[in-house]
Amino acid sequence: MAITSSTERAGGEPVDAALELRGIDKVYPGGVHAVAGVDLDVFPGEIHALCGENGAGKTTLASIAAGKLKATAGTVVARGNVGLVHQHFELVDRLRVWENVVLGREPRRGAELDRAAARAEVERLSREYGLAVDPDAVVETLPVGIAQRVELLRELARDPAVLILDEPTAVLAPAEIDALFATVRALAQRGTAVLIITHKLQEVVAHTSRITVMRAGKVVARLETGRTNVDDIARAMVGGELPELAARLEIAQHQALAVHGLSAGESSLAVRDASFEVRGGEIVGVAGVEGNGQSALADALAGVIPYRGTIELGGVVLPAGDPAQRIACGIRTIPQDRRREALVLPWSIVENAALGDQRSPSLRRGATVDRKAARELAKRIVERFDVRTPSVDTSVSELSGGNQQKVVVGRALAHDPKFLLVYQPTRGIDVGAAALVQSRLIEARNAGVAVLLISFELDEVLALSDRVIVMYRGSIVGTFERGSIDRARIGSLMAGAGLQAEPVVESA
Amino acid sequence: MSAFQDFVVLSLVKAAPLIYAALAGVICERAGILNIALEGQLTVGAFAAVAVSFATGNPVVGLLAGVAAGALVGLLLGVAATRFGVDQIVAGTGINLLALGGAAFGLTVVFGQPGASAEVPALGVTGERIIVIGAFVAAVLLHLGLYRTPWGLRTRASGENPRAVHSAGIDPRNVRLVATLLGGALAGLGGVYLSLAELDLYSDGMTAGRGFIALAAVIFGRWTPLGATGAALGFGALAALQFVLQRSGVPSEFMQALPYLAALAALTGIAGRARAPQADGVPYAEV
Amino acid sequence: MIRGLWIGFGLAVVAAAAMLLAGANPLLGFWALFRGALGGERQISETLVQTTSLLFPSLAVAFAFRAGLFNIGAEGQLVIGGLAAGVIGARLDTSGLISIPILLVAGAAGGAAWGSIAGILRARFGGNEVIATLMLNIIAALLANYLVVGPLHSPGAAGAETAELPHSSWLPTLLPDTRLTVALLIALALAFVLRWVFDRTVFGYELRAAGDAPEAARRAGIDLAKTAFVAMALSGAMAGLGGATIVTGVLHRFNVSLSPGYGFIAIAVALVGDLDPLKIIIASFAFGILQSGALTMQALAHVPKDVVSFVEGLAIVALAARRFVAGRKQMTAVAQE
Fold this sequence. Notes:
The complex is a heterotrimer of chains A (508), B (287) and C (337).
Chain A lengths: L6 E2 L6 E2 L2 E9 L5 E10 L4 E5 L6 H8 L7 E6 L3 E4 L11 H6 L5 E2 L2 E2 L1 H15 L14 H13 L5 E5 L7 H16 L3 E5 L3 H7 L2 E6 L2 E7 L5 H9 L15 E11 L6 E10 L2 E5 L6 H9 L4 E7 L2 E2 L5 H7 L1 E4 L3 H5 L6 H5 L10 E2 L2 E2 L1 H14 L16 H13 L5 E5 L7 H16 L3 E5 L3 H7 L2 E6 L2 E7 L5 H8 L9 E3 L2
Helix pairs in contact in A: 12-13, 13-14
Chain B lengths: L1 H30 L6 H19 L2 H24 L5 H24 L12 H25 L1 H11 L1 H6 L4 H26 L12 H11 L4 H20 L7 H16 L20
Chain C lengths: L1 H20 L4 H13 L2 H26 L7 H18 L4 H30 L3 H21 L33 H18 L1 H11 L1 H6 L4 H28 L10 H11 L4 H25 L4 H14 L18
Helix pairs in contact in C: 1-2, 1-13, 2-3, 2-12, 3-7, 3-10, 3-11, 3-12, 4-5, 4-6, 4-10, 4-11, 5-6, 5-10, 7-8, 7-12, 11-12, 11-13, 12-13
């Protein structure tokens, strides 16, 4: 969908767009066509949303707009500086706030770095934009929400005409999200053109004025926020009806995993004294903002970090620090970062299918790997999980994120696990694959598997879980049965509002 | 006490080339380049200095040639690592090999004989002293440079998170290239010291693994200029000790092995768990 | 493949330039090189001797690299292996059927022990094995020198070497009156065994996983520390075995200069061979040609033989851009997510 003119009619006065993209194309050396023929305008003073599922090309487009990446074709016209706040911050952790903010534009006194001037600049910007931060703090000691401010300040220091925010609320608690949008609104009022990349449609509807929807690298819809709703936007993003999930069955539950007083990890990312159980035939969802101890919890359960407390499976205490033992007992994990933690990227699907079970009698013949059995397993996974691939011998690196994740999930479920630990199962994959993965998790639950689901997408947690536990600063601050889910309550617990003596327990 | 004074002087003499090489290591690693090629840079610096001094009759020109040669080899490593994505450790090993081979080859070509060069005009006592003092000056300058200047900030940032540097509008690969160039020049100067200041000739293998001891000094010194200099001084003292204990029953090989054994010990964390720059040795690929 | 050919061509040009610089005729130089390497039965046998001496450490280096470890210490492990074989061999006088296996095992054990030091530093302390193996190379040379001249000095030996081994302990030759011995067959067999280990065995599977994706391997129940240790020990054993074959087959004694840098050239060979044992056989042969032809090149065409090590070093730099130990690096590929 092309744009013909770049002037706005707001209030009757024609105004030029602050950012004008025409015919943007980006093809990567591997042949991936990330962005195809995209036109986009962002006007001064507007808050414009760029929506699309993961892999739609939004981040690539943003990088091109900000001048960090060269387009293969097309033009970028920006009337002023373009600032970009990344989804995964690009800050130098071991340096201080002021060092990060002035990097590249350092104030000088002769040949030396003018530290006083740099600090003063940070303080000035903090006041001006209402983003409080200690200039001398070392970035790696800052909580995520504050670290984001540092990146924001760095971009704002260049007095941008256009500010692009890539998934800015992914790591924020509800209160911090409100603060961020207050800042964004203030910026827009000053005349900055703001482009927000997000898939959080509730936020889009609440805070933006126009929406551009991308799918598979192209623009598929241009909407006015006032004239549309969440469902329409979602449909545009997906290109049709949203797939449905598998049905949940009423089943009897039995004791499976029990965790007592689990503490692991370091400092602000630790999990503290967590106790809960996951029964066979239920999905327990862990709700919480990223960085509140979920990774420590997951790693302790997976056996890859030391911990205090006990973890029992079927009444038997598991030895600490032994992933191999976990696997032998019937524990399977779907880790957070599939490319690094679940798959060996250069290897084929067949070889990856055997990973974790390479010593089990079903895949081994003496000292050698049973290639035939591994092949059969790979074929079963590909079929059952609809993995789109030319063959099982294809290298996993050539699969899309969604198909990679299907392989990981398929492998985890292939040996009838007793307990399944799932961490961010639909991160970075397309909606179709996400729905399939979620359905398979429900089916596993129906078949009696005990599932612990950790996800930063509250919607996902609420859609899949029989029971929700909320984590904040490493502690469990609330438990909710499916029948009595109170989204607002959960949200405030996620932000730390419920720090009372007893954790909240809501049952149906 | 004169013997003690001799010991101190000898320690300084032995430490000087190590300090230069260690400083080179610090600059490179802080920028994110793991420089295994220090040995090769010392070698080419030493050889080029002798060859040019021989050709021109002027040891100062020889000194400049040695520095330039070291810088050139540094550039080779830098370009290979930043533009061609060559693995830094393997490239460094290759450079060491080619430096040794090239210098041996050069010996035959320039001097007509393998093994060692003829004696050439050298830098003399004054020159030697200047270079030794220069090592400490360089250490202080590097310290100030890394922590007080914009260049230093960008260099340190490139070694920790090149993406962030790129975000800020600077190409971390260029920063790394400059670092390897500077580092190579420093290491080259260290090599010049070996052949034109301490002695007045070049011989096969005269660098004797100093480039590797320098790496150990960088680790001991926790990747800081002053720390690495201190560690290098320590190693220099060890080498001087070897002379003193020569007459005692301690086998010379053991004394010679001490710096390397100390480096091994450093790896066990005895020197404390300092952290290397986060992006040390990791290539940065722009798309 | 094409890129490899371009690199080879470029290296040849550089070599030619170096020859010109030395005042020699490049054409004569190349001709002398190949004539010296392949010009006759004796020449070919010498080339194969060099091939064998390179094959052991190259397989060792490739083995470690596949496990994600940079074993830059093959040279030192080779020396220690040779030392063990030489010191024991000079004192052992019995039937070859007994002595030869003992000496080869001693060599492998010595190399394994030396490699294990780096292995422990890595597994137990997380110490960088690059630095460790580099240091150990130098320590090995110093240690060998000390032992052979001092405490383990064999009566009748002059200089930094052991006495000659009794004839019964000499490796049987494949071609009479040459230095080519059954060591070549052992090396070839080792290559095939390694290929099988990588492709078929569970051990090889876990090793490759540790090298290609250490985090995923850890979560799959693979003990990374143990794998690192075993890989370094086995790698050292292979290099040490190579040292033992040089001592029992080529020199018939241990001499501290038994290796003209095989352990370092092995890195180039391993890279050229793509870390694949079978391709490494071919690469070893190519480099063997360079090594054995170099002396003839020096004698006939007056090209200093060091040009070969210069070119080999350049080859390493040029070749290291290939897909390498993937798991060790951050994936700097663009995230599609």
